Amino acid sequence: MGIHTTDSTNPMDPLPTPVTQAGREGLDALLARPRTALIGLDFDGTLAPIVADPEQARAHPDAVPALSEIAPKVASVAVITGRPAGVAVRHGGFAGVPGLEHLVVLGHYGAERWEAVSGTVSAPPPHPGVAAVRAELPGFLDRIGAWRGTWIEEKGRAVAVHTRRADDPQAAFEALREPLSDLATRHGLIVEPGRLVLELRPPGMDKGVALLEYVRDIGAESVVYAGDDLGDLPAYAAVDKLRSDGVPGLLVCSGSSEVTELAERADLVVDGPEGVVRLLRTLAAQLD
User: Fold this and answer.
1) pLDDT tens digit string along 223-254?
2) Torsion 24-25-26-30 (CA) sign
3) pTM, 2 dp
4) Per residue in 32-89, pLDDT tens?
5) 115 in the Ramachandran plot: left (φ > 0), alpha (ψ -120 to 50) or beta?
6) Most exposed residue of 5, 11, 52, 288, measured as fewest CB within 10 angstroms of its CB?
């Protein structure tokens, strides 16, 4: 498990030391050649605190200032999220911010791409299975006797079932996992589990694919990736692959008590979105 950062928000704090040799090499590469480095970040749980209603999620108050400090000093900052790109931009407050010209948002696991420099979103046509599941899901949940408090989130190119408000959130999550997987399969979709949420979405879209494609697009020579949830594991695997191909990388976990798998694989663990913000500001100060 990675080491935690200090509690201070002073950007002049010393950088924490990754607990793995590969992580230390990734950090060293960023510090030595920042103009060729990519910083990849999940949104919910990493830049924005987890809340009961995802529509109320907003970036940590210091997230945009931190991104504005570090983005001009690296090749690019990419926010990689399962949310629609436009929603992440709106909830993050990323549009029209000086210093964020090097920021992109890869929404829907990379199916959508928003670039700060143009303010536009590019995306392919949606998968037809999503519309079919969207229409069927309310009745489907009623028929299987879904737990009280379970609710559906419309995500454009995906649809998610949340159990955080259920009487027993974890039991509801486990009970719904298999039937929702069967429903997804019938419509050519897959289920992506997360923190008390099951997302039905098209196959072939994940944060690892998005990260690898963007690294290749910009020719990044080192990469940092920070995430907090099971959906970030493909991005972790992508960084592992890049390392094996000679591209140094640093894996950061935005720590929580709900998901431990990332912390066990990370080079560095920080204390949630506040810790991520602190790390970004400390890095930015080191790059002056």
Assistant:
1) 999 999 999 999 999 999 999 999 999 999 99
2) positive
3) 0.80
4) 999 999 999 999 999 999 988 888 999 999 999 999 999 999 999 999 999 999 999 9
5) beta
6) 288
